[in-house]
Specification:
Elements lengths: L29 E3 L5 E2 L12 E3 L5 E2 L12 E3 L19 E3 L19 E3 L5 E2 L12 E3 L5 E2 L17 E3 L19 E3 L18
Parallel strand pairs: 1-3, 2-4, 5-6, 7-9, 8-10, 11-12
Length: 209
Protein backbone atom coordinates (compact mmCIF):
# COMPACT_ATOMS: atom_id res chain seq x y z
CA UNK A 1 0.00 0.00 0.00
CA UNK A 2 0.96 3.65 -0.61
CA UNK A 3 3.68 2.89 -3.17
CA UNK A 4 3.08 6.04 -5.17
CA UNK A 5 5.95 5.45 -7.63
CA UNK A 6 5.09 1.82 -8.49
CA UNK A 7 4.16 1.54 -12.18
CA UNK A 8 4.54 -2.20 -12.94
CA UNK A 9 3.95 -5.41 -10.95
CA UNK A 10 4.15 -9.08 -12.00
CA UNK A 11 2.61 -11.81 -9.79
CA UNK A 12 1.76 -14.66 -12.18
CA UNK A 13 1.14 -17.38 -9.55
CA UNK A 14 -0.75 -15.38 -6.90
CA UNK A 15 -4.02 -17.09 -5.91
CA UNK A 16 -5.24 -15.39 -2.70
CA UNK A 17 -4.66 -12.06 -0.91
CA UNK A 18 -5.80 -10.55 2.40
CA UNK A 19 -6.88 -7.02 3.28
CA UNK A 20 -5.54 -3.71 1.93
CA UNK A 21 -3.76 -5.22 -1.07
CA UNK A 22 -2.22 -2.53 -3.30
CA UNK A 23 -4.24 0.41 -1.97
CA UNK A 24 -3.26 3.98 -2.85
CA UNK A 25 -0.79 3.02 -5.58
CA UNK A 26 -1.53 6.10 -7.64
CA UNK A 27 1.04 5.49 -10.41
CA UNK A 28 0.09 1.88 -11.23
CA UNK A 29 -1.55 1.77 -14.66
CA UNK A 30 -1.77 -1.96 -15.55
CA UNK A 31 -2.12 -5.12 -13.49
CA UNK A 32 -2.38 -8.77 -14.56
CA UNK A 33 -3.15 -11.41 -11.91
CA UNK A 34 -4.03 -14.48 -14.01
CA UNK A 35 -4.39 -17.00 -11.13
CA UNK A 36 -5.99 -14.84 -8.45
CA UNK A 37 -9.18 -16.43 -7.07
CA UNK A 38 -10.01 -14.69 -3.77
CA UNK A 39 -9.30 -11.27 -2.21
CA UNK A 40 -9.93 -9.61 1.16
CA UNK A 41 -11.19 -6.13 2.05
CA UNK A 42 -10.05 -2.90 0.34
CA UNK A 43 -8.55 -4.56 -2.73
CA UNK A 44 -6.98 -1.99 -5.07
CA UNK A 45 -8.85 1.04 -3.74
CA UNK A 46 -7.81 4.57 -4.77
CA UNK A 47 -5.60 3.49 -7.67
CA UNK A 48 -6.56 6.49 -9.73
CA UNK A 49 -4.22 5.81 -12.69
CA UNK A 50 -5.21 2.15 -13.21
CA UNK A 51 -6.59 1.68 -16.74
CA UNK A 52 -6.15 -2.08 -17.38
CA UNK A 53 -6.89 -4.94 -14.99
CA UNK A 54 -6.97 -8.67 -15.77
CA UNK A 55 -8.50 -11.05 -13.17
CA UNK A 56 -9.78 -13.99 -15.25
CA UNK A 57 -10.11 -16.51 -12.37
CA UNK A 58 -11.36 -14.28 -9.56
CA UNK A 59 -14.34 -15.93 -7.79
CA UNK A 60 -14.92 -14.13 -4.49
CA UNK A 61 -14.15 -10.67 -3.12
CA UNK A 62 -14.73 -9.00 0.24
CA UNK A 63 -15.66 -5.35 0.92
CA UNK A 64 -14.59 -2.15 -0.87
CA UNK A 65 -13.34 -3.94 -3.99
CA UNK A 66 -11.81 -1.44 -6.44
CA UNK A 67 -13.45 1.55 -4.80
CA UNK A 68 -12.65 4.93 -6.39
CA UNK A 69 -10.59 3.86 -9.42
CA UNK A 70 -11.47 6.83 -11.56
CA UNK A 71 -9.45 5.92 -14.70
CA UNK A 72 -10.70 2.35 -15.20
CA UNK A 73 -13.05 2.18 -18.20
CA UNK A 74 -13.54 -1.58 -18.77
CA UNK A 75 -13.62 -4.61 -16.49
CA UNK A 76 -14.26 -8.29 -17.21
CA UNK A 77 -14.64 -10.72 -14.28
CA UNK A 78 -15.87 -13.92 -15.97
CA UNK A 79 -15.71 -16.21 -12.89
CA UNK A 80 -16.79 -13.86 -10.10
CA UNK A 81 -19.69 -15.27 -8.06
CA UNK A 82 -19.92 -13.39 -4.74
CA UNK A 83 -18.95 -9.87 -3.60
CA UNK A 84 -18.98 -7.85 -0.35
CA UNK A 85 -20.30 -4.34 0.22
CA UNK A 86 -19.13 -1.23 -1.67
CA UNK A 87 -18.22 -3.26 -4.77
CA UNK A 88 -16.84 -0.97 -7.50
CA UNK A 89 -18.28 2.19 -5.97
CA UNK A 90 -17.28 5.58 -7.41
CA UNK A 91 -15.65 4.27 -10.58
CA UNK A 92 -16.72 7.32 -12.53
CA UNK A 93 -15.07 6.28 -15.84
CA UNK A 94 -16.30 2.67 -15.90
CA UNK A 95 -18.33 2.22 -19.09
CA UNK A 96 -18.20 -1.56 -19.71
CA UNK A 97 -18.59 -4.30 -17.09
CA UNK A 98 -19.00 -8.06 -17.54
CA UNK A 99 -20.09 -10.25 -14.59
CA UNK A 100 -21.71 -13.32 -16.20
CA UNK A 101 -21.58 -15.63 -13.14
CA UNK A 102 -22.27 -13.20 -10.30
CA UNK A 103 -24.93 -14.65 -7.95
CA UNK A 104 -24.91 -12.60 -4.73
CA UNK A 105 -23.93 -9.04 -3.81
CA UNK A 106 -23.87 -7.09 -0.54
CA UNK A 107 -24.76 -3.42 0.17
CA UNK A 108 -23.81 -0.44 -2.02
CA UNK A 109 -23.16 -2.49 -5.16
CA UNK A 110 -21.89 -0.29 -8.00
CA UNK A 111 -23.17 2.95 -6.50
CA UNK A 112 -22.25 6.25 -8.17
CA UNK A 113 -20.86 4.87 -11.44
CA UNK A 114 -22.06 7.75 -13.54
CA UNK A 115 -21.03 6.65 -17.07
CA UNK A 116 -22.14 2.98 -17.02
CA UNK A 117 -24.92 2.66 -19.62
CA UNK A 118 -25.61 -1.11 -19.83
CA UNK A 119 -25.39 -3.95 -17.33
CA UNK A 120 -26.24 -7.65 -17.69
CA UNK A 121 -26.28 -9.84 -14.57
CA UNK A 122 -27.83 -13.09 -15.82
CA UNK A 123 -27.18 -15.20 -12.70
CA UNK A 124 -27.74 -12.63 -9.94
CA UNK A 125 -30.24 -13.89 -7.34
CA UNK A 126 -29.87 -11.73 -4.22
CA UNK A 127 -28.78 -8.12 -3.57
CA UNK A 128 -28.26 -5.91 -0.53
CA UNK A 129 -29.08 -2.31 0.38
CA UNK A 130 -28.46 0.57 -2.04
CA UNK A 131 -28.12 -1.61 -5.13
CA UNK A 132 -27.03 0.40 -8.18
CA UNK A 133 -28.06 3.76 -6.73
CA UNK A 134 -27.18 6.99 -8.57
CA UNK A 135 -26.04 5.36 -11.82
CA UNK A 136 -27.32 8.30 -13.79
CA UNK A 137 -26.34 6.98 -17.26
CA UNK A 138 -27.66 3.42 -16.85
CA UNK A 139 -30.33 2.92 -19.51
CA UNK A 140 -30.45 -0.90 -19.85
CA UNK A 141 -30.42 -3.50 -17.07
CA UNK A 142 -31.05 -7.23 -17.22
CA UNK A 143 -31.69 -9.20 -13.99
CA UNK A 144 -33.58 -12.31 -15.14
CA UNK A 145 -32.95 -14.43 -11.99
CA UNK A 146 -33.13 -11.83 -9.21
CA UNK A 147 -35.41 -13.11 -6.43
CA UNK A 148 -34.73 -11.06 -3.32
CA UNK A 149 -33.75 -7.51 -2.39
CA UNK A 150 -32.57 -7.71 1.22
CA UNK A 151 -33.99 -5.45 3.89
CA UNK A 152 -31.76 -3.47 6.25
CA UNK A 153 -32.21 -0.82 8.96
CA UNK A 154 -32.16 1.73 6.11
CA UNK A 155 -34.63 -0.11 3.87
CA UNK A 156 -33.53 -1.40 0.46
CA UNK A 157 -33.06 1.72 -1.69
CA UNK A 158 -33.00 -0.54 -4.74
CA UNK A 159 -32.06 1.27 -7.97
CA UNK A 160 -32.86 4.72 -6.63
CA UNK A 161 -32.04 7.85 -8.66
CA UNK A 162 -31.22 6.09 -11.94
CA UNK A 163 -32.57 8.88 -14.06
CA UNK A 164 -31.76 7.32 -17.49
CA UNK A 165 -33.38 3.91 -16.91
CA UNK A 166 -36.46 3.51 -19.13
CA UNK A 167 -37.30 -0.24 -19.00
CA UNK A 168 -36.86 -2.90 -16.32
CA UNK A 169 -37.84 -6.57 -16.29
CA UNK A 170 -37.63 -8.55 -13.04
CA UNK A 171 -39.46 -11.79 -13.85
CA UNK A 172 -38.40 -13.76 -10.73
CA UNK A 173 -38.39 -11.02 -8.07
CA UNK A 174 -40.46 -12.01 -5.02
CA UNK A 175 -39.45 -9.75 -2.10
CA UNK A 176 -38.21 -6.16 -1.73
CA UNK A 177 -37.62 -3.76 1.17
CA UNK A 178 -38.37 -0.03 1.61
CA UNK A 179 -37.72 2.65 -1.03
CA UNK A 180 -37.84 0.26 -3.95
CA UNK A 181 -37.12 2.04 -7.24
CA UNK A 182 -37.61 5.58 -5.95
CA UNK A 183 -36.86 8.68 -8.08
CA UNK A 184 -36.42 6.93 -11.44
CA UNK A 185 -38.01 9.74 -13.39
CA UNK A 186 -37.72 8.25 -16.92
CA UNK A 187 -38.82 4.66 -16.14
CA UNK A 188 -41.80 3.89 -18.38
CA UNK A 189 -42.17 0.10 -18.24
CA UNK A 190 -41.87 -2.34 -15.34
CA UNK A 191 -42.66 -6.06 -15.14
CA UNK A 192 -42.89 -7.77 -11.71
CA UNK A 193 -45.06 -10.88 -12.26
CA UNK A 194 -43.94 -12.82 -9.15
CA UNK A 195 -43.63 -10.02 -6.59
CA UNK A 196 -45.26 -10.95 -3.27
CA UNK A 197 -43.90 -8.59 -0.61
CA UNK A 198 -42.88 -4.91 -0.62
CA UNK A 199 -41.81 -2.37 1.99
CA UNK A 200 -42.67 1.31 2.47
CA UNK A 201 -42.41 3.97 -0.26
CA UNK A 202 -42.70 1.45 -3.09
CA UNK A 203 -42.10 3.09 -6.50
CA UNK A 204 -42.05 6.61 -5.07
CA UNK A 205 -41.61 9.55 -7.49
CA UNK A 206 -41.53 7.55 -10.73
CA UNK A 207 -43.30 10.26 -12.69
CA UNK A 208 -43.13 8.61 -16.15
CA UNK A 209 -44.30 5.12 -15.19
Amino acid sequence: SNNTALTELNLPELQQVGNDFLINNTALTELNLPELQQVGNNFLINNTALTELNLPKLQRVECNFLDNNTALTELNLPELQEVGYHFLSRNTALAELNLPKLQQVDDNFLSENTVLTELNLPELQEVGYNFLSRNTALAELNLPKLQRVCRSFFGSNFLSNNTALTELNLPELQQVGDDFLSNNTTLKELNLPKLRQVGDYFLRNNTAL
